[in-house]
Amino acid sequence: MPNNSSVTIFILLGLTQDPQKQNLVFFIFLTFYGSTVVGNTLIMVTIKFSRTLGSPMYFFLFYLSLVDFCFSTSIAPRLIVDSLSTKKIISYNECMTQVFALHLFGCMEIFILIFMAADRYIAICKPLRYSAIMRRQVCVILTVFAWTGSFIHASSQIVLLVKLPFCGPNLIDHYCCDVQPLLKLACTDTYMVNLMIVSNSGALCSCSFLILMISYFVILHSLRNHSAEGRKKALSTCSSHILVVIISFVPCIFMYTRPPTTYSVDKMVTVFYTIGTPFLNPLIYTLRNAEVKNAMRKLWNVKTMTN
């Protein structure tokens, strides 16, 4: 904790103060988190042990599931436990750790989605050069780059926050620690800090979203030259990716590209991209992907026959 801060703990107000609604929050988000863990673990295990899912797209899907698992785990368990607590206390260091994890895994998800879009662009628009460009070594290098970039981004958020003095009050009107709620509690002018955060997180979300939507527009436009069967398969894959991009980026852009003001919908918007997106991704990538479903059936049949 920095020396210019007198606050050692924060108190989270959570999603609601109503005891009955808190019980509802507990059961709803316990179900969501349990489903997220099972769904993303199932995808990771399927890709890891399936011989048919060795393409770069599934290499990146494995890491997307891993990131979703970690992203949800950094937020959901505390929300679930706090929903049964009368005082939702979090220490200064735990709060900063949660901010770091939130931005580390959130930024990593952005990188992975960009790599998946690039993979689809090369596969559809440059099929003859696909195997030469998207080699295994290239995928590994891109993943290392993504982890490094995410670490730098998350560290920059923490550096901005730890320099702020927190003298009280220490009530965070949220269910988790994030940059915007903490800026409200700082006992100093945070205009420049918020400007840097918007330039960092806001620009990252907005530019990445724009790049992704343009890339998918180019992909969909190029499909006119493909056969009907090829168009159908590509459209199925790309529509899943576009859906994930929209539900991941729109809430983030809303939260990180605005002045330091709060709205009544902020908590629900945050719920959508911290808990809802990791829950929906496994459903989107399994229900709309025949290869993943077939690989899951084969692994299940092999396990059943072995037993």
Automatic annotation (TrEMBL):
<dbReference type="GO" id="GO:0004930">
    <property type="term" value="F:G protein-coupled receptor activity"/>
</dbReference>
<dbReference type="InterPro" id="IPR050427">
    <property type="entry name" value="Olfactory_Receptors"/>
</dbReference>
<protein>
    <recommendedName>
        <fullName>Olfactory receptor</fullName>
    </recommendedName>
</protein>
<keyword id="KW-1133">Transmembrane helix</keyword>
<dbReference type="InterPro" id="IPR000725">
    <property type="entry name" value="Olfact_rcpt"/>
</dbReference>
<keyword id="KW-0812">Transmembrane</keyword>
<dbReference type="InterPro" id="IPR017452">
    <property type="entry name" value="GPCR_Rhodpsn_7TM"/>
</dbReference>
<feature type="transmembrane region" description="Helical">
    <location>
        <begin position="100"/>
        <end position="118"/>
    </location>
</feature>
<feature type="domain" description="G-protein coupled receptors family 1 profile">
    <location>
        <begin position="39"/>
        <end position="285"/>
    </location>
</feature>
<comment type="similarity">
    <text>Belongs to the G-protein coupled receptor 1 family.</text>
</comment>
<feature type="transmembrane region" description="Helical">
    <location>
        <begin position="268"/>
        <end position="287"/>
    </location>
</feature>
<dbReference type="GO" id="GO:0004984">
    <property type="term" value="F:olfactory receptor activity"/>
</dbReference>
<keyword id="KW-0552">Olfaction</keyword>
<feature type="transmembrane region" description="Helical">
    <location>
        <begin position="201"/>
        <end position="223"/>
    </location>
</feature>
<feature type="transmembrane region" description="Helical">
    <location>
        <begin position="24"/>
        <end position="45"/>
    </location>
</feature>
<dbReference type="Pfam" id="PF13853">
    <property type="entry name" value="7tm_4"/>
</dbReference>
<feature type="transmembrane region" description="Helical">
    <location>
        <begin position="235"/>
        <end position="256"/>
    </location>
</feature>
<dbReference type="InterPro" id="IPR000276">
    <property type="entry name" value="GPCR_Rhodpsn"/>
</dbReference>
<keyword id="KW-0716">Sensory transduction</keyword>
<feature type="transmembrane region" description="Helical">
    <location>
        <begin position="138"/>
        <end position="162"/>
    </location>
</feature>
<keyword id="KW-0297">G-protein coupled receptor</keyword>
<feature type="transmembrane region" description="Helical">
    <location>
        <begin position="57"/>
        <end position="80"/>
    </location>
</feature>
<keyword id="KW-0472">Membrane</keyword>
<keyword id="KW-0675">Receptor</keyword>
<keyword id="KW-0807">Transducer</keyword>
<dbReference type="GO" id="GO:0005886">
    <property type="term" value="C:plasma membrane"/>
</dbReference>
<keyword id="KW-1003">Cell membrane</keyword>
